[in-house]
Amino acid sequence: MEMHFIFSDKVVLLFDFWSVHSPAGKELKPTDRKRLIQAHTLSMALSVLVVLLLAVLYENIKFGKVKLLHHTLVNMPTFTSQQQEETDQDSSSSESLPVSRPRLRWFLCHFGHSLIHVAQVVIGYFVMLAVMSYNTWIFLGVVLGSAVGYYLAYPLLSIG
């Protein structure tokens, strides 16, 4: 494995089955040079496109998470310390009170945010590992995908 960036049409990305050595895993004969070059170019272009879309998705999740957190904090009811003490005293007097709706709503929102965070981390690591293939085309796809994703997602912060 090369430990510096190279321009190549041969790379294995993330998994063994994502090998950009031939189209769809079908080996071509070296005598068919023109078809071989076209196949490598198409396969590499599709791989760059997939990595670019992963980077766009990562940026959109990042901005969406911020927007969702802001929306949640604005719409969640706030308790004062006095209201919290009254609620605690009321709950200690009766043994089996159901969980209050605001707390359940907060828990569900927090759980949803946690799932979104896990998706963001997984996609981020996939993008990082793709860059660590040291293929310049893949790296440029990630950079372009991050730029496009930021460009598309940034206006979402000002909406609403």
From TrEMBL:
The keyword DNA repair appears for this protein: no
Spans traversing the lipid bilayer: 37-58, 106-131, 137-157
NADP keyword on record? no
What's this protein's name? Copper transport protein
Q: Which family does it belong to?
A: Belongs to the copper transporter (Ctr) (TC 1.A.56) family. SLC31A subfamily.
Q: According to the entry, what is the taxonomic lineage of the organism?
A: Eukaryota, Metazoa, Chordata, Craniata, Vertebrata
Where it sits in the cell: the answer is: Late endosome membrane; Membrane
- Write down the superkingdom of origin: Eukaryota
GO terms for CC?
late endosome membrane
Quick one: where is this thing mainly located? membrane
Q: How does it sit in the membrane?
A: Multi-pass membrane protein
Record the organism: Molossus molossus (Pallas' mastiff bat)
Write out the GO MF terms. Answer: copper ion transmembrane transporter activity
Among the Pfam families in the record, one is Ctr
Keyword field: Copper, Copper transport, Ion transport, Membrane, Transmembrane, Transmembrane helix, Transport
